[in-house]
Specification:
globular; 634 residues; 21 strands; 3 domains; alpha+beta; 18 helices; Beta-lactam-related; TAT_signal
């Protein structure tokens, strides 16, 4: 039902970071008082926010809580890089990162609500600016985009830039470097900014308006969100003391529907109300009641025991409470947006600073403890025998962000994002998983399905053609990898192979010079030719490294976005160098085989040559594995 309040007076407070008096008065500092539904919301938020700023390196935060018809908003600390400007919930802009997607999916549900697009329509039929690859017979639909199941590889390039002058129109961003389709749609969840960016362009193409114009007219204006904007660098975010923008902010979204919104706590309180009050705020309707219900219901889950996806929002079960939520983060900002539909409650928290995530989470957890309490006295689960197919479960699992990426970005996702999961079955039947410094224990509750021994968490093993291939930690998917695919193994292989390969590249010319100096006997002509070929193969590796470094420096000196943010179109030519080197190495393999068959070289020469060729082959296999050759196997 719509709110009976025209608009609650918004509270704006600036909390003294070092005081801590409110915390002590509440009893929360010592943990002697658990938050309850009877605790005053303003007091609870004051205590948590004051504690968060006192204990973490965060400069400021803003909070919005909607509880039925009551709206609570407040600000604490100072504005971003403006220590003399207190945070005001109705004025101070924050970057909310991926929570921008909530606005995008809300706008997408509007065009569904108006009959312009059906959730199961092929988006390719409605897109004008982008052509979706026809890799599979199954079409990608809006439902797939909203649940992050379109089957695209993850695309990092094109997501952001460090200079607002490089931000592109959305149509250009989504139509450049269109990610490959690596699996049929609807099969597996894989979070990507591209899905939301493509949805933003779908909204633009269907409505005939720019994405930000559509959202301004159809969401911001009717909800009174007058301070919200998708502009890349709004003046309200940076200090007004003449500081250059580039000295303050280093991240600008190049896919604004996914991560480009700047907003205030008060504005987000309006959005919370719209979602909790059947699409109506202050008499202004942005969605029908049925459309709101549709946004909040489950649209996808890989297994009935796993919290899945609503329409653009993530499910989370906490105790007996179902939450639909989204978090977000960009450098120095962290955000939480959550709806508890059955409770009529919503919350929004965003903080800035080097420990923004910890500060934000401190406040969010206090609110979750109030509205979605968890009974921590539950019994520890024990295994009931050895899991079925226990012998197939052990091993290392790497995120599909890396395993299923067919572009050169695979190495970025493999080396610098996330950590693999190691799984093994203990003697008593418990499944043990290790990820980084975290170790967890699980018990099987049905074939290939495991529950955490203490927490509310589920693991599911996925099989393909009767073989266990993936581990699903909630929605996140990890693919089982072989021993030779482990980074530690590949690291040692790289070092050893590099040393051996260099003994040929450096040793052969040095030996030739020494023979000339001493007047020694030259090797057979066939050996000389073979060494030139093998040397060219090894040199291709070295030239590739030098070319990559040179291109990186050149791109920066040209004032362009970085190679990671947006490589120039001609960057793919860099991968031609090692491809020619790989061809030369293939020829060197043939020379090595002929040398052993004919035995026309000395044994020592044949052994050394073979070792160099094997080392070069290993290095080129590693380049191929990480998609760093011009010809890629996927």
């Amino acid at each position: 039902m719509p709110s009976t309040l025209s608009r609650r007076r918004f509270l704006s407070r600036s909390a003294a970071v070092g005081a801590g008096t409110a915390v002590a008065a509440s009893g929360l500092a010592s943990g002697s008082t658990e938050p309850t539904r009877t605790t005053d919301v303003d007091t609870l938020v004051d205590d948590a926010a004051t504690r968060a700023l006192a204990e973490h390196d965060a400069g400021g935060l803003t909070v919005a809580v909607v509880d039925g018809d009551e709206v609570h908003t407040s600000g604490y600390g100072h504005a971003f890089r403006s220590e003399d400007v207190p945070v005001r919930a109705d004025e101070t802009l924050f970057r909310i990162g991926s929570v921008s997607k909530v606005l995008t999916w809300t706008a997408a549900m509007q065009i569904v609500d108006r009959g312009r697009v059906a959730p199961d329509d092929s988006v390719d039929d409605h897109l004008e600016a982008v052509d979706i690859p026809e890799t599979y017979d199954e079409a990608i639909t809006l439902e797939h985009l909203a649940t992050h199941t379109p089957g695209f590889e993850v695309r990092g390039r094109g997501d952001s830039v460090s200079d607002p002058r490089h931000v592109r129109p959305l149509a250009e961003s989504v139509s450049t470097d269109v990610p490959a389709r690596v699996r049929p749609p609807g099969e597996l969840y894989q979070y990507t900014n591209y899905a939301a960016a493509l949805t933003g362009q779908l909204i633009a193409d269907v409505s005939g308006q720019q994405f930000d114009s559509f959202v301004t007219e159809n969401v911001f204006a009717p909800l009174g969100m007058s301070n919200s904007t998708f502009r890349a660098a709004p003046s309200g975010l940076v200090p007004a003391d003449g500081t250059a923008v580039d000295d303050v902010v280093s991240f600008y979204s190049d896919v604004s529907p996914a991560s480009g919104l700047h907003t205030t706590g008060a504005d987000m309180a309006q959005l919370l109300q719209a979602h909790l009050h059947d699409g109506v705020v202050d008499g202004e309707r942005i969605l029908s009641e049925s459309a709101v219900d549709a946004m909040h219901r489950q649209w996808f889950t890989p297994h009935e025991r796993i919290d899945g996806m609503a329409f653009g929002l993530f499910e989370r079960t906490r105790g007996d409470t179902r939450i639909v939520r989204h978090d977000g983060g960009v450098p120095q900002f962290s955000t939480e947006f959550a709806l508890l539909p059955e409770e009529g409650v919503g919350l929004f928290v965003v903080a800035h600073g080097s420990e923004a995530y910890n500060a934000k989470q401190e406040v969010a957890d206090a609110l979750y403890d109030r509205y979605a309490p968890v009974d921590s006295s539950g019994q520890r689960r024990s295994p009931d025998g050895t899991p079925e197919r226990a012998d197939e479960l052990g091993g290392r699992y790497r995120s599909v962000n890396a395993t299923d990426t067919v572009s050169s970005e695979r190495i970025v996702f493999g080396l610098f994002t996330g950590q693999p999961i190691d799984a093994r079955v203990a003697d008593d039947g418990r499944l043990i998983t290790e990820q980084g410094d975290s170790t967890d224990e699980w018990v099987e509750v049905e074939p290939l399905v495991f529950e955490h021994v203490e927490k509310e968490s589920t693991l599911v093993f996925r099989e393909t053609d009767g073989e266990v291939t993936h581990l699903l930690d909630g929605l996140s998917a990890y693919e089982q990898i072989g021993y030779r695919e482990r980074l530690s193994v590949q690291g040692w292989l790289t070092m050893a192979a590099s040393v051996v390969a260099l003994t040929g590249l450096v040793g052969w010319p040095a030996a030739r010079g020494w023979r000339r100096y001493r007047g020694g006997e030259s090797p057979p002509e066939s050996a000389a030719h073979a060494r030139w070929v093998a040397g060219a193969g090894v040199a291709g590796l070295l030239v590739f490294v030098l070319a990559f470094v040179a291109v990186s420096v050149a791109v920066v000196s040209m004032g362009r976005p970085t190679l990671f943010d947006r490589p120039p179109a001609w960057f793919e030519l860099v991968f031609v160098v090692p491809t020619f080197g790989a061809v030369a190495t293939a020829g060197a393999v043939a020379y090595a085989v002929r040398a052993w068959v004919r035995e026309d070289w000395s044994l020592a020469s044949r052994v050394h040559y073979s070792l160099v060729v094997v080392a070069a082959t290993v290095l080129y296999w590693l380049l191929q594995y990480w998609n760093l050759l011009w010809v890629r196997m996927g």
